[in-house]
Write a structure and sequence with these properties.
Helix content of chain B: 40-55%
Number of strands of chain B: 2
Structural class of chain B: mainly alpha
Number of helices of chain B: 10
Order of helices and strands of chain B: HEHHHHHHHEHH
Chains: A alpha/beta, B mainly alpha, C alpha+beta
Shape of chain A: globular
Number of strands of chain A: 32
Oligomer: heterotrimer
Distance between the termini of chain B: 66 Å
Strand order of the largest sheet of chain A: 5-4-19-18-17-6-7
């Protein structure tokens, strides 16, 4: 037999057939089929998160001033979820969407992982990592250099609040260094504190006992949109929906916000006229004799007309309000029908525990002093001070018993220089600082002097100040901008040097009383995980900068490290803070005859300022002064107002990816902000739902999408606040428009602070 | 086709050649058949699985003898009801504190203390014989403590009237599913399926997938089989999948 | 299957959401995403492709300023039990892969990602748009995989996902119960992530079959001045999520039947 091709193939076929049949008697085909099908379901690139022991670690959320206690769920060493801490008096188990997404900040790409030095052009996003020694050395050297050149006043410090140890370490650094240019982000709470200073004689934050109030009259406050401590406020608001609670919220606001929709009553008002309505209510209450007679006659002054030492007659609050704010006049100013003004006043007066609230939206804009005083006067008329369900005074959380700062001659002299923003000068005698003017001042070629250095801690002036373009241009002119914080926000993106802070999940720190909270409440952040990156607690950074500068600056920082500073500053409170996560104290609830710290120990309806800045007697008699945004009515026929809510973080922390995801397409569409416009007005301007449009104001213009929303008045457009970032990551940066870039400075004629974010605008289809 | 294409020259010799060819082909088929059996039963499993030794050779017998509470000393339930599974190095360090206080003479212990305990209690990269895919949820608590399982193991069992602090269980409970691992003096090598990436223990040692004991196979069908037996039905997918 | 479980105490987990309390803050949405390893992308403004197990819808009374009103409506999976409560929910009925299933023990509609092959019949069948398709493999920015939870498996491209009533929390709670020799859970032992997070306490979760649970009480006797409703009740889907409202316009918007809507569309209004 020849082994020809045919034979070979036959044998091969036989062997193959035999093999095939044989394989059926082995597990091979079945096992292979099973294995391959399993293989086809393997997705090795899909994460398989490691398992392990689950534990819960407490800390305090620092993403907004709300001060909620949180509980971080961990699997082994990883944080996997943030939940509200049960039993915490601020939020008792509840949490807001921002706090809930905090791990996207802890682990996310917006974290600054190591000290960075600018490597490209300013704001270009090119950085060179440097060591902490280099970074701190450079800050100390630059600042010392300025100081030696007697230019200490040209270095400015910008912090996000005046309370808490870390803010105060930076403020102390500014003082001993010798710069008067200290900026603290200015909010409606500060304005209310000013009102309390003038009317009650003591600088204190207001504490509202809203849980025990039955009638909450809100002058534009975003009660469920971030005003005060968000979770607490939502809890308060939910009491209203409890059947048979007898509690109501009345929301006075130009736009149908979430708060307005959830309130028992929404009073639609023209933007920026809330003070007039408050005084209109005072008018009705006084005219009809509904006020608290005991309080007004025994514990107040300047309610009636009065005569000063030089026999000049002055109108008292009563006559001023009766003359200037009858409901008919108020209707003209505010657009609220006179009958409704009267009805509101009677309801407020008839309630058992009414209280009036001040602060537009989240309260992030200062507002007007008279606005705050008018609202507080309403509270005073009904005797709602130091009463259950009313308003109390809380001194700022800055009682640390620190030794007096060591001030050398250099510091003392440069502290006497005029501030660059003109605060405290004859032009703005009632302001201690005017951060909102920073853009304008830096852009002004005739400014008193240039700023050579700016040290920012946790604030984001590049994003939050009005007139963004001027602010950014102004920042670019400063030789040396240092940002200290945990995230690459807009200001960090514009900095020369970035000094990364731990997040609130990695550090020990005190968290001051949440705004508006009814009691003094100092929270404690504590390390839930060891710091993940080469970051440093910002208080430690401040101390080390001071120490590196040596001399009297260093002497004023006697602590070996921040932890020692924290322990000494908190003193006996720290034990509570460590055990419960917070320390609490009731506010002073003293009776009216001890409550007021004015010269006469009485509540002052029309406080008088005695200051060399006022050659004539200056009397702060609450009134309404119309705010006139720039631009002509013919060129800009619409009014632009911002809107805020909890899904839009608009302060020093921006939206996380989860939060951006929750934004409805009536706020953001692709990369564009969506503007709300009344359907009738929209149609009149040739717009269509979802269509593109160009929105312009005297300050700038932007491309937007259109959403017809009957919750805004005719000829009004509303834009979401919190978009249009230049910092952060691809999940936030470049999305939408920053309202601040479209809105010019609208100063309070009394103080100079920014009164409101309102602008004239026009819109055309794009 | 046309007649002319028939093979006109067929001779008996040719016929013989055909028969011969058939015989050879049949023989080849037989060889193929047996070769296939050989490959399928012996070569294939060797090729299919890779073998690796555990980083530390662990002696269960010694440990079971040394601890008070048998299996649950190291393989315990946490307070929240979850099962700790493989002990963490920190757990081991309770006894194996440092090189100065070794418990015995075994070089493997030295290796463990030196390379793991004394290096920040680094975790040992154990190979887990029973590791299931990420989409599987397995509750040890349900299998050890649930009344159904108790009744399954002990038909006399009655659910207590009052709440009991902690459910006592013993080695016999563990044996039901895990076999007699506590009697092993060495770790067997970990074998991994080169195609699926899963442990050989899932399919089982027997390449034909035949099992005699519960612990010899851990495929989904095995779960379902037992669930059907104990609970009367296969149950919703959610019970075991996440 | 039903008969087999009848000797066990059957649960019917459900939710009552008080729309008067809901502020639309979005905490439930984020708490859900954080709990369940829900992915996110750089642009999430196309809401048809945006995966939100819990989604807060906005209703409007469509009146003009200043009489306009809005109301938020959070929408998880309704965990429908279908006509007669037999477990024939719209999605379960159509799934050719048994990747979604109705559990008679808990009343929860499951979704098994590794079982799903992405035909999306269930998405078409679900009248609540509660189901979402993974058009892409999820991607997490650098470092963010650290926070992923091992309790919920991560999805891959080509599968459908939806709200599970945080079933893994039930499993964990049962683990604890078993070790304590219990087979029943306390009301607070098993709560969904959204319920726990809600700052307004607008969401109440529990066993609708258990009279002692708040959900059962709210459903049998809604608080004074509030009315209860379920979404698209007329479809006989028998959803397990109830809503409470005191606003008549919300109630009528919810009760508007498909026929009415169709009639309106035909007559060109």
């Amino acid at each position: 037999m020849k082994l020809d091709r045919r034979t070979f193939l036959s044998i091969g076929a036989g062997a193959a057939a035999g093999g095939a049949v044989g394989s059926l008697f082995t597990p091979l085909p079945w096992k292979l089929t099973d294995d391959l099908s399993i293989w086809s379901q393997n997705w090795p690139w899909t994460p398989d998160p490691a398992r392990g022991e689950v534990t819960f670690a407490p800390t305090t959320c620092e993403l907004c001033p709300g001060g909620c206690g949180v509980s971080v769920r961990k699997v082994k060493d990883r944080c996997v979820k943030i939940e509200g801490a049960d039993g915490n008096p601020v939020n008792d188990g509840g949490i807001c969407p921002l706090g809930s997404s905090g791990l996207q900040i802890l682990y996310g790409p917006t974290r600054i992982k190591t000290p960075l030095k600018r490597a490209g052009k300013r704001g270009e996003g090119k950085w060179k990592p440097v060591t902490w020694d280099e970074a701190l050395g450079e800050v100390a050297a630059k600042l010392s250099d300025l100081r030696q050149k007697k230019l200490a006043h040209t270095a400015a410090v910008y912090v996000n609040g005046g309370e808490g140890t870390v803010n105060n370490l930076f403020l102390r650094l500014a003082t001993v260094y010798g710069t008067p240019n200290v900026f603290v982000s200015r909010t409606a709470w500060d304005t209310y504190a000013d009102a309390l200073l003038h009317m009650q004689g003591e600088y204190a934050k207001p504490a509202f006992d809203l849980e025990n109030s039955d009638y909450i009259l809100s002058f534009g406050c975003g009660i469920i949109e971030g005003w005060g401590s968000p979770v607490r406020m939502i809890r308060v608001n939910a009491q209203v929906a409890e059947a048979g609670s007898g509690k109501t919220v009345v929301q006075i606001e130009p736009r149908l916000s979430n708060t307005a929709a959830k309130a028992g009553k929404w009073v639609a008002i023209k933007p920026g006229t809330e003070a007039a309505l408050a005084l209109g209510l005072c008018h009705v209450i006084i005219r009809e004799g509904l006020f608290n007679d005991e309080f007004v006659s025994t514990f107040s002054q300047n309610f009636e007309d009065w005569v000063d030492e030089v026999h000049t007659e002055h109108r008292g609050f009563k006559r001023a309000v009766l003359e200037d704010f009858p409901p008919s006049a108020v209707e003209k100013i505010t657009g609220v029908p006179r009958a409704q003004v009267a009805k509101l006043a009677r309801e407020f007066a008839a309630a058992k525990a009414p209280v009036a609230l001040f602060g537009t939206g989240k309260g992030e804009e200062a507002g007007t002093l008279y606005g705050a005083m008018a609202v507080h006067a309403l509270n005073a008329l009904m005797g709602r001070i130091n009463q259950a369900g009313g308003v109390f005074m809380l001194p700022p959380d800055a009682d640390f018993n620190w030794p007096a700062p060591a001030m050398d001659a250099l510091a003392q002299r440069s502290l006497r220089e005029n501030r660059i923003d003109g605060a405290g000068t004859d032009r703005f005698p009632l302001a201690s600082e005017l951060p909102s003017r920073l853009g304008e001042v830096l852009a002004d070629p005739k400014k008193p002097y240039p700023l050579h250095a700016l040290l920012v801690y946790a604030a984001d002036p590049a994003f939050t100040l009005p007139e963004t373009e001027k602010v950014l241009a102004g920042l670019s002119q400063i030789d040396f901008v240092v940002y200290c914080g945990s995230q690459m926000n807009d200001t960090a993106a514009m900095a020369d040097l970035v000094l990364p802070d731990h997040t609130c999940y990695e550090k020990w720190q005190d968290v001051p009383t949440p705004p508006g909270f009814a009691r003094r409440h100092i929270g404690l952040t504590r390390p839930v995980v060891k710091p993940l990156f080469s970051t440093m607690q910002a208080g430690e950074t401040a101390i080390r900068i001071a120490k590196a500068m040596g001399g009297p600056v260093a002497e004023s920082f006697p602590w070996s490290d921040y932890i020692q500073c924290l322990e000494e500053s908190m003193g006996a409170r720290l034990a509570d803070m460590k055990e419960n996560g917070f320390w609490e104290a009731e506010p002073d609830k003293g009776p009216w005859y001890t409550a007021f710290k004015t010269r006469t120990r009485k509540f002052d309806f029309a406080p008088r300022i005695i200051s060399p800045a006022f050659p004539d007697t200056k009397i702060l008699l609450p009134t309404y002064e119309a705010l006139t945004p720039a631009g002509s009515e013919s060129g800009f026929p619409l009014t632009l107002i911002p809107y805020e809510n909890l899904r839009l973080a608009a302060q020093n922390v921006g939206d996380t990816p989860f939060l951006v995801k929750t934004l409805p397409d009536s706020s953001l569409m692709n990369q564009e902000s969506v503007v709300e416009i009344n359907p009738a007005t929209g149609k009149a301007f040739g717009l269509r739902e979802g269509g593109a449009a160009i929105l312009s104001t005297p300050a700038g213009e932007t491309r937007v999408r259109v959403h017809f929303y009957p919750g805004v008045a005719k000829n009004t457009v509303a834009l979401p606040k919190g978009l249009g970032h230049i910092g952060y990551d691809d999940y936030l940066a470049g999305k939408g428009t920053n309202v601040n870039a479209l809105v010019g400075l609208l100063p309070d004629p009394v103080t100079g602070h920014n009164a409101a974010l309102i602008a004239r605008a026009r819109i055309v289809p794009a | 086709m046309s007649q002319s294409s028939l093979k006109p020259s067929e001779t008996p010799a040719d016929k013989n050649a055909y028969a011969g060819l058939w015989a050879v082909v049949l023989f080849a088929a037989a060889v193929g058949f047996y070769a296939s059996l050989l490959v399928g039963w012996i070569v294939f499993p060797k090729l299919l699985y890779s073998k690796q030794n555990q980083p530390i050779d662990f002696n269960h017998v010694v440990h079971v003898g040394a601890v008070d509470d048998s299996c649950q000393t190291c393989h315990y339930f946490r307070e929240d009801g979850s099962f700790a599974g493989m002990p963490a190095t920190a757990d081991c360090a309770g006894c194996h504190e440092s090189m100065d206080s070794l418990q015995g003479e075994n070089p493997q212990e030295k290796l463990f203390v030196q390379d793991y305990v004394e290096k920040d209690q680094k975790e040992v990269p154990w190979f887990i014989y029973s590791k299931q895919p990420p989409c599987v949820f397995f509750s040890h608590a349900a299998h050890v403590f649930s009344p159904k399982m108790r009744q399954f193991r002990d038909p006399e069992y009655q659910l207590p009237e009052e709440e009991v602090e902690e459910g006592a269980y013993d080695d016999t409970t563990c044996h039901v599913c895990h076999g007699f691992i506590g009697e092993s003096e060495h770790n067997r090598p970990y074998e991994e399926n080169r195609i699926t990436g899963y442990s050989r223990d899932i399919w089982g040692e027997n390449i034909a997938g035949i099992k005699k004991h519960t612990w010899e196979r851990m495929k989904m069908d095995d779960c379902a089989e037992c669930h059907e037996k104990v609970k009367g039905h296969k149950e919703a997918c959610f019970v075991c999948h996440k | 299957m039903e008969a087999a479980e009848s000797h066990e105490k059957q649960k019917m987990y459900g939710m009552v959401i008080d729309l008067d309390k809901c502020t639309g803050c979005g905490a439930c949405m984020v708490a859900c995403m954080a709990e369940n390893n829900v992915p996110f992308r750089k642009d999430e403004t196309d809401k048809f492709k945006s995966i939100t197990w819990m989604r807060v819808y906005l209703l409007s009374n469509k009146k003009d300023y200043p009489y306009s009103d809005i109301c938020y409506l959070p929408r998880p999976c309704m965990h429908c039990s279908g006509r007669g409560g037999h477990g024939h929910s719209p999605c379960v009925s159509v799934c050719p892969a048994v990747a979604t299933d109705y559990s008679h023990a808990t009343g929860i509609v499951s979704q098994i990602y590794t079982r799903c092959f992405g035909c999306r019949y269930c998405m078409g069948a679900c009248p609540y748009h509660a189901r979402y398709f993974n058009w892409w493999d999820p991607k997490w920015p650098e470092g963010m995989k650290e926070y992923l939870s091992p309790d919920v498996s991560c999805r891959m491209r080509g599968v459908v996902e939806k709200c599970s009533f945080c079933f893994h929390r039930y499993q964990r709670a049962m683990d604890l119960a078993f070790t304590e020799q219990r087979t029943e859970l306390e009301e607070n032992e098993y709560q969904t992530s959204c319920t726990q997070a809600c700052p307004a306490n607008a969401i109440v979760f529990g066993d609708l079959n258990n009279e002692e649970h708040q959900v059962a009480q709210l459903v049998s006797e809604p608080p004074e001045g509030k009315k209860k409703f379920r979404l698209l009740e007329q479809l006989d889907t028998n959803p397990k999520v109830y809503y409470l409202t005191s606003k008549d316009w919300v109630l009528s918007a919810a009760n508007r039947s498909v026929k009415e809507e169709a009639k309106k569309a035909e007559s060109g209004h």
